Amino acid sequence: MMRDPHIxxxxxxxLESVQAMVMRMGGLVEKALLEAVEALEMRDEALAxxxxxxxxxxxxxxxxxxxxxxxxxxxxxxxxxDLRTVLTVMRLAAALERSGDYAKNLAKRSLVxxxxxxxxxxxxxxxxxxxxxxxxxxxxxxxxxxxxxAKAAEVRLRDAEVDQMYAALFRxxxxxxxxxxxxxxxCMHLHFIAKNIERVGDHATAIAEQVxxxxxxxxxxTARPKVDSVPMAEG
Amino acid sequence: MMRDPHIxxxxxxxLESVQAMVMRMGGLVEKALLEAVEALEMRDEALAxxxxxxxxxxxxxxxxxxxxxxxxxxxxxxxxxDLRTVLTVMRLAAALERSGDYAKNLAKRSLVxxxxxxxxxxxxxxxxxxxxxxxxxxxxxxxxxxxxxAKAAEVRLRDAEVDQMYAALFRxxxxxxxxxxxxxxxCMHLHFIAKNIERVGDHATAIAEQVxxxxxxxxxxTARPKVDSVPMAEG
Lengths: 235, 235
Description:
2 copies of one chain form a homodimer.
Chain A (H helix, E strand, L loop, with lengths): L9 H33 L2 H32 L3 H34 L8 H24 L3 H31 L4 H33 L19
């Protein structure tokens, strides 16, 4: 489809508005993740409660995006790249909604952990992992807006580092639990927190793959880090 | 949109074909889940490997469904209920794909667990939970095909039972670990298996909610069992 760059179609205007909503949603999810790990580290109950309550706004935004995309499909009947773009936006919103759920879950677990003895060093390691994942998510969304498959490919590769951070934490928690059985309950919560952050990384990777698919029309051939990777070495 | 029931439109034929693919996908996912827990219980390495390898067929089917739905959207430009139906099919396929990932993950963890001392009673409890979830998934897909919101509402309620089974297992694993630290590693894997089965139940619930939305045009008001429920009592 040829387009005069000086003519902005109704479709383009619709798309721009819904993309702005996705970016706002991305910002909220990133903030929720960072604040949830901060609440965990600082044992800040009020902050954890705010993150928990804030998930409703993320969910509402997702519903608004999905409704708006359905309206665009019905009203504009886009084809080819335009159709693929709308479907991509819908998948991005779904991935962000799930990531928001993980942030909320993290906040809930941090509230539980505040009433237990602290596990040395764990919150710091969790924070580093969360920051790496937030950077991934942010770069994946930037790659979408810029339609930049090279940047998206880089996000895919960096997700492997997050998986390594998770595997290292898994080993660390096992060691703590074996050394001191009183740490079993907090370590299980910390382990789930680490796993949830790793899953947000998987969603960032999925967004990056959507960008590559959108621009290049094909999913990358090389296997990506697995969604449900089990650190087999620890088994 | 009024329709003469004796005239089958091109859209209806397309929809029927893609719905048949979703049902086939559902069947594969249910089989994968049941075989994965059987492999865990019987310590059947070959079966676990088959489940693991079989996930590729589920993923391929999902991609085929998403591509076909995009083709229907582009070619038929459906509106109103027809559009909502195609979008529902896309969400169903995505939910089944993730459920298949959980079955694969379960198979991988069962392979790890085969090389550890058995945890008394755990595989049987896991099997019961998996059977309940497979029944939920199957009923949710039936509710979709029959466009039966009452059946879908019942699936939503029954998911709470699965959540209770998960909470009971969580308590059981904690007890084992506290009593005998040598069970910590297998119990962590078993705990993840239970959590993954619970998540398949959440996907069945999400499918049921899609059916209610499709037929009644509104999401149910009453809060559904939470996706990322943390058994706080155990915290």
